[in-house]
Amino acid sequence: PGILRAYVKPGHYDALSFTYQSILERTMGIKFLWGEVKELDGEKQIAHIKPMFSDHTEEVAFDYCVIAAGCTFGLFSKWGESLWAPTVNEGAIAESEWKHIDERFIEGRRRHIFEEHEKLAALNKKKANVLVVGAGFIGVEWVTELQHYFPNLKLTIMDFLPKCLGPLPQNAASYCDKYMKEHGIKCYYGMKYAPKEEGFFQKIGLNGEPDCTFVDS
């Protein structure tokens, strides 16, 4: 997903983002309502929607309802919160790790990306140890982006599966594994992420807890 590049090169975000209203209404002739669906009544065929700048919900009738809300997949958050998707649901914002930023707005999302970029720059300056948990599509892309843009980082990636890019053919996994190791990224497979287990970090070549950990799905 191209959004990962934005964290290491913030200017890339502008190439990925746009406002829905201008595209949907002016180009495609689709009415756009900016708000959050709080309830769907299938029997009455009514959606209860809270518009962005309102304290009350409105009822919108429908003949057919297509739910295409995407997903979030943060394993350690009940909301599935992760860096890679904005936190936009009202309930999730109140419990967010970055509740000081409203990512329902493009500017809020941009601010969050800039904040994370500054953290990465600081880690790079101190030559920090960074652990990426999960060597699937996102994990491999993320750790290689980090290596390219922040070469002073000491990077480690690990996965419970016996290889990286588990769903892909062996040739793809071998290629990425070779690339990562040639670029100084330590790779550990067939290991469960168990940070509270005594001696765990030593098993993946670290003297202790890393300076920063990213858990990717």
Brief write-up:
The chain has 217 residues and is α/β, with parallel strands linked by helices.
Give structural attributes.
217 residues, alpha/beta, FAD/NAD(P)-binding domain, 2 domains, 4-stranded parallel sheet, 3-stranded antiparallel sheet, 33% helix, 17% strand, elongated, FAD/NAD-bd_sf, oxidoreductase, electron-transferring-flavoprotein dehydrogenase activity
Which spans have pLDDT < 50 for at least 5 consecutive residues? none
In terms of quaternary structure, what is this? Answer: single chain
* Percent range for β-strand residues: 15-25%
In the sheet with the most strands, the strands line up as 6-5-4-7
CATH fold annotation of the largest domain: FAD/NAD(P)-binding domain
> CATH homologous superfamily of the largest domain?
FAD/NAD(P)-binding domain
What does this structure look like?
With 217 residues, the chain is of the alpha/beta class. The chain has 8 helices and 7 strands, in the order H-H-H-E-E-E-H-H-E-H-E-H-E-H-E. The strands form 2 sheets. A 4-stranded parallel β-sheet has the order 6-5-4-7, covered by helices on one side. The protein has a 3-stranded antiparallel β-sheet with strand order 1-2-3, with no helix packed on it. Strand 1 (35-41) and strand 2 form a beta hairpin. It is elongated and about 55 Å long.
